[in-house]
Amino acid sequence: MTAGTNKIKAIATTANGGPNLDRLDVEPPSGPPDTEAPSQPQNLRSTGKTSNSVTLEWDASTDNVGVSGYVLSGGQTATGTTATVGGLQPNTAYTFTVQARDAAGNLSPASAPVSVTTSPPSSGGRPADVNGQLHVCGVKLCNQYNKPIQLRGMSTHGIQWYSQCIKTASLDALVSDWGGDVLRVAMYIQEGGYETNPRKFTDMMHGYIEEATKRGIYVLVDWHQLTPGDPNANLARAKTFFTEIAQRHKDKTNIIYDIANEPNNVSWAKVKSYAEQMIPVIRAQDADSLIVSGTHGWSTFGISDGQDVTSVLNNKVNATNFMYSFHFYANSHKQEYINALSRVADEVPVFVTEFGTQTASGDGGNDFATSQKYIDLMAQKKISWTNWNFSDDNRSGAVFKGGTCAGNSFTGTGVLKPAGVWVRDRMRTPDDFPTS
Ligand SMILES: [Ca+2]
Ligand SMILES: [Ca+2]
Ligand SMILES: [Ca+2]
User: Fold this and answer.
1) What family is it from (predicted)?
2) Is residue 153 within a helix (H) or strand (E), and if so which, with residue range?
3) Residue 24 has pLDDT above 70, yes or no
4) How far is the CA of 256 from the centre of ligand 3 (A)?
5) Mean pLDDT value across residues 319-332
6) Catalytic annotation on 195?
7) Domains of the chain, each with CATH number or no CATH
8) Which chain residues have CB less than 5 Å from ligand 1, an ion?
9) Which ligand is nearest to the CA of 35?
10) 191 in catalytic set
């Protein structure tokens, strides 16, 4: 019943039939009417934006009876504590507030306002078209306009196990739904990988390079040596493989060569020696190539070997257009590693070719708080990254839920594990690829 006049229609019937109603009692709800408004929503914030939309979140209000929903300043309603406001103009500042309401219609005070400027209109350019041939400038990765850029993308799982996850629908999702700029193709050498059938795996890599090229993204050719940890153990194989890959793809402007995934149980001197042998092999085919190599201690600049980053910084690889890779797993590698990444990135070019939000096994609980610190650091210093991994493996670091790769639906968050939802959100934010 609302305030004012209410019409009531009642039909009562006796055992003998016919109406027999001479009295109607109407009891109001027990207790006084709810006139108490919900509390003011707190911490209104923007958690995402595009050129035509803004996503807002806020902390829940409380109410003496119960909050039934929220009303945004533009009139849009929400039942939960998030809403995406669409239909906005690019590159335009908007101010939003939100109020909570209860079932009785009481409205809370409006939240503190938040101002958000929508993203610039999208250039429509694909990452590899806009940025062209990459090169190292100082300690940064620069595009064809000699401007520092950050690439963000995904790493496959080992292609000897999870090639079913790298297909038309998943690659289309990576590009158009995730906004990925780069695909790292993890080709193991051992563990059933390249060494078992070099022809087959080289041809697979050729195919993935073409798929990335068609979609206008970069491709990071990952020589995924891991066990044995000394990359020199696979030197002859690496020379054969990279010679063919570089010879065939040298004129593409979207290829990046990673010659050693995670050296381990090996000295930096041996890794450096390997890199200085491999770089000329690739450059003989592809003179302007961008080449990345891992560092000792599983690509931690020696930290996971109990060493200091100066083991690398005081003994740098003698090469131009060369980057060092750094890997981390945020639930294993905390502040010491963040500090190390921050330090090395100021002194040498660094590409985070692999990271996870969980433990170093690629499994276990996610530490999104620590992961966010890394993301913020990498954004600030324009450190490019590819996340482990774009598969439906059962571990928490595989972004897709089990069984996803058998189908053809890869867009949205319904197919994603928590790590996938998280990293997709961080990849979808607008790119900053300066062209002048
Ligand atoms: Ca109330
Ligand atoms: Ca992007
Ligand atoms: Ca080239």
Assistant:
1) Belongs to the glycosyl hydrolase 5 (cellulase A) family.
2) strand 152-155
3) no
4) 9
5) 98
6) no
7) 42-117 (2.60.40.10), 127-428 (3.20.20.80)
8) 34, 36, 63-65, 102, 106
9) 1
10) no
